[in-house]
Amino acid sequence: MPARATKSSRPVKKSAVDVFKFGGASLADASAVRHAIGIILSPRPSRTVTVVSALAGVTDALLAIAEWARVGDTKAVDVAVDRLRARHRAVAEGILTTQRARKALVKELDTAFDELRTLAHGVATLRELTPRTRDYLVARGEQLSAQLVVAGLLGRGAKAQYVEAAELIRTDGVFGNAFPDLAATDRVVRERLTPLLRRKVLPVIPGFVGGGAEGALVTLGRGGSDLTATVLGRSLKAQRITLWKDVPGLMTTDPRLVPSARIVPQLNVREAAELAYYGAKVLHPRALIPLAHISVPVFVRPFADPGAPGTEISTRHTLQRYPVKALSIVRGQALVTVTGNGMLGVPGIAARTFAALQQAGISVTLITQASSEHSISLCVPAERSAHARAALEQTFALELSRRELEGMDVKTGMATLAVVGLGMAGSPGIASRMFTALSQSGVNIVAIAQGSSELNISVVIAERDAEAAARSVHDEFQLDKIGGGGVRSDDRLDVVLLGVGQIGRELLRILPRTRRRVKPTIVGLIDRSGYLFDPEGLSPKQLLAAVAHKESGAALTSMPNAIRASAPEAVAQIARHALSRPVLVDLTADETLPAIRKALAADWDIVLANKKPLSAPRGEVQALQALAKQHGARILHETTVGAGLPVMDSYAKLVETGDKVLRVEGCTSGTLGFLLTEIGKGRPFSEALGDAMRLGYTEPDPRDDLSGMDVARKALILARLIGFTGDLTDVTVESLVPEAFRSMPVAKFKSTLTQQDKMWADRQGTATRQGRVLRYVLRATPTAVKVGLQAVPPSHPLAGLRGTDNQIVFTTMRYREHPLVITGPGAGPAVTAAGVLNDILQLTPA
Ligand SMILES: NC(=O)C1=CN([C@@H]2O[C@H](COP(=O)(O)OP(=O)(O)OC[C@H]3O[C@@H](n4cnc5c(N)ncnc54)[C@H](OP(=O)(O)O)[C@@H]3O)[C@@H](O)[C@H]2O)C=CC1
Ligand SMILES: N[C@@H](CC=O)C(=O)O
To answer: Start and end of every ACT domain (predicted)?
Structure first.
């Protein structure tokens, strides 16, 4: 009868719990344990269940103690126990700050080591080490490290509690290699851990250990702490399970074999399980079994760099451009082939072959049988090949004596290479690409196996060819691009929008209307809260939803699948995916240089509507341009001056044809143009500015326009083009914002606009009486840059501008007497988004 869920046995709300697992290699000494404690305490509010392995090397030391005890060497036992005791004491001393806490912990440790010693001496007396006793001894490593972590957490003022694993993880009771009884464990875990989590207590559980029959303690097999973590994550319906490891994540292959191996950002559970089975040592092969029918993502993350995202293992299927996502090489294999005419049509040969190997305790890593049924080949670890031959010869002694079987052929010095990826299913040509790559690098394929799931293709090759084989297959499937970098594809351009404000949303609206063979694909959106990303491209539905969402003033991170991050973090995380001709489009009005640098470093191109990056101090801008050059990236910024008007384009055409620009003058503020036109018609300042804001002409803070800073930035960008070596502070700027309004919060400024109506009416009145027209004007030469309000006569070319019209006048060597004039609307979402789109299209493949 199913157990009824009581209040306390219900799992805590889905997505509330994190399960962390710290591997032994991470927990090496006191500073590592302190670091782990810092990681456990970092999520706030913390509902973290922690699983720990034994301190690095302790499991091996305990196994050695068990062996010495079995042969009666109590001296060796004592030395090893004392060494372990000293090591654990040193960690205790290093993680606790008060004498009292240290004394108490050392006492606990001493009790545990005394018991260990007594037990080992008992084994030595009897000279008998049962599997049960061995498990009991070896489990001590995880138990001790859990005690240390609990003490460390308590020492940091956290509420933490040691929970005995044998009481939580119910198993089939197989000593040395037990497997959890998932249903039973689910119930116990919820009953025991849920109340602790509700009380905000951090449970710490020894990994690798479970409970067997009659209260026996069992172990889950080498690396079994991963399994403990996934079992707990499953039972608690955790929001995620994080395996903190001494590797950066799951790699496309072994980086020692292939230096260009990359971290795979995301793997499907089936792919990860396949890789674990085929030799990717990072993950315990059985660790993913508990998650087969339940969607809890597992993250393999680097302990040394907790900010790095590592590899996500989940039910998602991303990176679909990669039919193969990783490859594994297992060396030290032997290929055993059973051959003979007597196998034809005789049922049971395969079954007897595998039964013989199973009885000999030999694990088979690959099987292949030709359809002629003339032979069966299989791979076994080379060191077991003699045993395998003997076991098979014994099983088939009769067939061998009758010559129905020709014999057992055993080839040692072999390796298996397996390529793994969900995208292989139904994609023709993957095997042929793999075989062609191998043949082109001179690698002979000895045997081939492919499962009907098409999730992997494995080949057997000579071990001496392993490196060449891995490199050629890795190259063939472009796996060096999977963790980031630009893939030069002819039919894609991947765009990430930094900023989803007025301009960003308008750009998203007009993008589908692009008349180009290759339409840019929006793969990412970033705002102040975080980012939304899909390497395959956000769907039109997602983009529409994002536009509506942002229009309503909400944060991107309140949308499904969005991730909380700062802009530089978001770019860095997105840049780990291989994108086609990636472009970062900066549509913020913020200091975004750190994010832009990250993008350039990943070979992305940049499009800017934001003027701040290029009006930063000269040294920073020069460094940015040098970085772009180094990475072969382009920085396009047409809309930083004159919105959609072809200002940068015209400048480039002038200089490309050998002209020299001597000075630039004009009006480059749509907001001020509109404001002065409206005030000139007699409208109050507050109304006119209100309209400018509503129509999307102003900067997010309209004082950037009114203070002249927006024009100053544009002037500096233009002036630097023609040789000005100064900074923004060297630009002479006339501010139109009265002192009292300059530093108040923007919301307050917007609510007090009417207080400036009279000042603006007076200013306009004076100009009208003088028969003049007010214009905010810039003048930039290689030696001086000035922006400010001018009262120009009605005959002046600038006097004729209306509304948001900008005018940019280039005086050049060629256009000296009659300068080149560009006039037109210079603000507003429609023209600006079109200008940004034009820049993006310049980067699009033709
Ligand atoms: N309006 C115009 O006519 C023209 C504008 N431009 C330039 O276009 C840019 C965008 O203007 P507009 O769309 O009106 O501005 P908005 O204020 O409407 O939008 C800005 C967007 O940028 C995001 N953002 C701001 N700072 C950060 C940050 N540090 N990290 C991540 N995201 C950030 C905001 O996020 P959140 O939503 O979370 O606040 C918002 O989505 C400005 O630089 C402007 O000068 C250029 C030419 C013409
Ligand atoms: N706020 C700016 C927008 C364009 O750069 C302006 O009004 O010109």
So the answer is: 338-410, 419-495
